[in-house]
Structure formats: structure tokens, C-alpha cells
Amino acid sequence: MRIAPPPGGMSLFDHQPALFSAFNRFYGTLWTDGVVDEATKEVGRLRNARVVDCGI
């Protein structure tokens, strides 16, 4: 599992465990497989967060 479920039951993932499981499989594959190295993926993730004004 790449990320832990959020506490408190305030997320869609808390109410849809199958969806959370599928998301974790996809997220893990995204960060571990492929031809793009992790540093480049991280730069893309940070750019995306800045463009959409993500506070996290």
C-alpha cells in the first residue's frame, strides 16, 4: 500500500474500500513502473499541484 487510508471517515475512499484498493494499485504502479524516472515524475507532480493551486 502506497498511502494510508485517511482517518475519520471523511473521504470517498473510506466509504468505497474497493475503489481505494484500485487507486492504491494504480498509484503504486504509476510511481514504480515505466520509462520515466521518479525525479521527473515528482517534478511533474509538483508542477501540477502548483498549477491547480493544491494546498497539500
At a glance:
It contains three helices and no strands. It has helices at residues 12-15, 17-32, 38-51.
Description:
By secondary structure, the protein is mainly α. Helices cover 61% and strands 0% of the residues. It is built from three helices and no strands. The two termini are 20 Å apart. The model has no long low-confidence stretch (mean pLDDT 80).
What is the strand and helix layout of this fold?
Elements: H1 12-15, H2 17-32, H3 38-51
Strand content: under 5%
The geometry reads as flat
Order of helices and strands: HHH
Secondary structure class reads mainly alpha
Largest sheet: none
Q: Average pLDDT across residues?
A: 80
Number of helices in the DSSP assignment: 3
State the helicity in percent bands. Answer: 55-70%
> What is the strand tally?
0
Radius of gyration: 13 Å
